[in-house]
Amino acid sequence: MNQGSRPSGAARDQWLESLRARYPTERTIDEALTRRLRKREGARYSPLSPDAVRERLAAFLADRIKGPSQIHNLRALTGGASKEQFVFELDWVQDGIPRRGERMVLRCEPAASIVETSRRREFELMRYAAQLMPVPAVYWIDDDGSMMGTPCLISKFVEGVQKPARASSNVTGMGIHFPDEYRRALAPDYARYMATLHRAEPSEADLPSFQRPRPGTTEGAALIVNWWARIWAEDLYEDAPIATLTEYWLRRNAPVLDRVSIVHGDFRTGNFLFDEKTRRITAVLDWELGYLGDRHGDLGWVLTDLYITREDGKPFHCGLFGSEDALVEAYEAAGGLPIDRRILLWHKIFCTWKQLVLSLGCALRAGDGLTHQDVLLSWLSSGGYTLSEALRRLLEKHG
Q: Does an H or E element contain 284, and which?
């Protein structure tokens, strides 16, 4: 099924079951994708008033905090193409210790977003990763939306900026380019945190909502290709032959997994904060796309054309690294696991295909009156044709 139409009622359920059978993926990914299709039927975005958010938040916190609590200065946060976010200050008692004016972030799902993910997975990843690097502490989660009206989580607010004061960028943190003095300061932290994440060995109890693919098989590659192939089947408005060709290439050339790592899934500029004075990273953000799989996925994401900026005509990946070699060398020097360039290429092609799915599928579908970011998502969808050309060049060269 393609074009703009989608079945409803019993026909929708039958269609959904066929997609689940055709594209088997992780249980919690399946749950998130199934939920998004079911709630889309008849859903339109309607923003909550600040008073309504405050009322629901107060009831939610009263159910989880022992003792009195008081919310102050609740306001919406701008930026981002995915979730609806609010910042507030909380007076509360933690472990018998009164805390006053602690700044927190409420992260909620709109009716639809460019990525539909699991708040439970995000919560578990942030909680675990906070042992490895600066990550906002996560406090509470309403993973089914039973109290807040929509799935959400609450984390600590962390100070920092996404870009140098005088740097330019596109929306959602894309296109941030760092001057040389910032690159020298930030690149080592960036490489070290990525390397540390990939070396970590979480137990099943640490990340119970995640499926662990088997090393020595192509299971990890199949899981992520199925994840995004299903999204494409659900969201596309019209067929794009380059997407079909790329999916076929990815399946035919699926790499064997040598070691299971935590993959952040979106480890780029715009998704980390740093202190403008010390030029040290203060927080790694946006863990919602994370999974257990091949470490090459994080490097491949950064190396796509989408995250290239230029200085005097020279390309910089993720605004920090002057070449693929520079990124790999910095990563391995920081203690990262060995990088296989053939596998890295597979993930670069996969990540470019994933960006195409997000652009020509998810952004258009969610932007059709289902989100607070409809204008932004419509703008992001225009990049799909550039991504199509990037895929054509990659497949022509390496296919």
A: strand 281-284
Residue type for 363, please? A
Quote the percentage of the chain above a pLDDT of 70.
Answer: 88
User: 158 — phi, psi (to 5°)?
Assistant: -115, 135
List of long-range contacts for 313-316, beta carbons under 8 Å, 24+ apart: 316/177, 316/178, 316/183
Which one-letter DSSP state was computed for residue 218? S
Residue found under tokens 């091949």: 294
Residue 236 CA neighbour count, 13 Å, CB half: 19
CA-CA distance, 381 to 361, in Å (whole number)? 8
Spans of all domains in the chain: 50-109+118-156, 171-398
- Integer angstrom CA distances of residue 399 from 30, 36, 156, 246, 396: 30, 34, 46, 9, 6
Q: Which CATH architecture has domain 171-398?
A: Alpha-Beta Complex (3.90)
Q: In Å, what is the CA distance from 101 to each residue of 91, 363, 384?
A: 5, 37, 43
pLDDT tens by residue, 26-81: 999 999 998 888 777 655 666 677 888 999 999 999 999 988 999 999 998 876 55
- Tens of pLDDT, residue by residue over 232-280, are 998 888 889 999 999 999 999 999 999 999 999 999 999 999 999 999 9
Alpha carbon distance 42, 392 (integer Å) = 37
What's the one-letter identity of residue 347? H
Cα 21 to Cα 288, 294, 298, 371, distances in angstroms: 24, 24, 28, 29
Please tell me what DSSP assigns to residue 362: I
In this structure, which amino acid lies at residue 277? K
Read off the pLDDT of residues 165-194 as tens digits, 9 standing for 90 and up. Answer: 876 655 556 778 899 999 999 999 999 999
CATH homologous superfamily of 50-109+118-156: Phosphorylase Kinase; domain 1 (3.30.200.20)
- Beta carbons within 10 angstroms of residue 16's beta carbon: 17
